[in-house]
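Task: complex structure prediction.
Instruction: return structure tokens for all chains below.
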Amino acid sequence: MMSPDIFIKAAPVVLQGLQLTLIITIASFLLGQLLALPLGLARQASSPLLRWPAAIYTFLIRGSPLLVQLFIIYYGLGQIPAIRNSILWPILREPLYCGIIAISLNSAAYMAEVVAGALRRVPEGQTEACISLGISRRHRFTDVLLPQVYRELLPNIGNEIILVLKSSSLASAVTIMEITGVARAFTARTFAPFEVFITAGILYLAIGFAFTFLFRLLERRYGITGTRTPAPEASA
Amino acid sequence: MSVILTYLPHLLQGLVVTLQVAAGSFVIGLLIAVLAVFGWNFGPRPLRWFISAYVTVVRGLPELLIIFLVFYGGTVLLSGAFGTYVEVNALTAGICALSVVSGAYLTEILRGALLTVPQGQWEAATSLGLSRMTAFRDVVLPQMLSYAVPGLGNQWLVILKESALVSIIGLEELMRKGVVAAGATHSPMTFYLTVGALYVAITGVSTLIIGAADRRAARGR
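Output:
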């Protein structure tokens, strides 16, 4: 039933999507991590003016599907004349940028909760210790707090990049020919879905394995020994 | 506003289909997971390898790819069997694909919950003369499920949101109804925000129910 020739034919086709999948994954992941820190800090802030908007943001993003968020950004924003006439329009009319923006905004909301949780777990005594040692507020943040939080979160961050990799397949819904997009188009032409989608799946597993390996190395080098691996639940 | 009201009945019909897909996939996924955890504990070694491979592979693949594989693959299989082009029903394909996905995540959740059931429960049950099988079914399984409530609830929320992907293969669920209304009225922002709000409403209500279920499951523990 499955023919080996089509596997051989499918491999180069599916590989054409690899570059876009990697671009979307890495860009969305980095942007998401960047946004997650201020959001996570805001979730933990004492001022309700920071805490509430961050809580509402994470509630709305985590409560609705990524596909809806992607369509709001790609199709929805174009409906507003003010946006079509703004300097942001050259970015917001490009499906690739919309995909990256949607996935990173989504990833940031999930990651912010994780960051907020890690911030909560830093013992109160450390603040007191820093003050009594005369460490400035800024250094307390950059040299004491952040390294601990991020070293502890390395397993969660490694988990998040896999979730972002899987989310990148949604970009095919806004015409981006990444791995899933090219695989679907090739299926329509050859009518050999098993060969094509299995080849694509193997490629996703290989990329995921490479990211996992990279994060294992980072954990071994920088991780805090004896910390737990992240919970198995998905958060996508 | 009036344009939303015109399409609201369609969107609500879609919402019902979304709940069907999510509930169907959740229940079948849970059955797969209970069998997998059972096989993991009592099965021969090759079965344990198979279960591990299933969980690892499915968790590493995009859900959309699995939906496409089941939908297009199913169509090819059926067309081959009948000798003419037969397209798989999108509802069936969606529920099958998402059951396989949620089954893998639920297996992990149940495996974690099983570890929190104290070892003494096994010992007590077997010392009372229950077979390992009966001990699992009547003593360990109910406790395992009660510990698993937060994880199961989380997976329900995940599956509700993932069900939107089935719109891509044309199932007329909430997301697809939103796409149709957005296209017909040329007001995508209005309809995608409305659809988003409806998803937030069902996940919000679900979260409240999960919280209540967890408090109930934790009673007497």
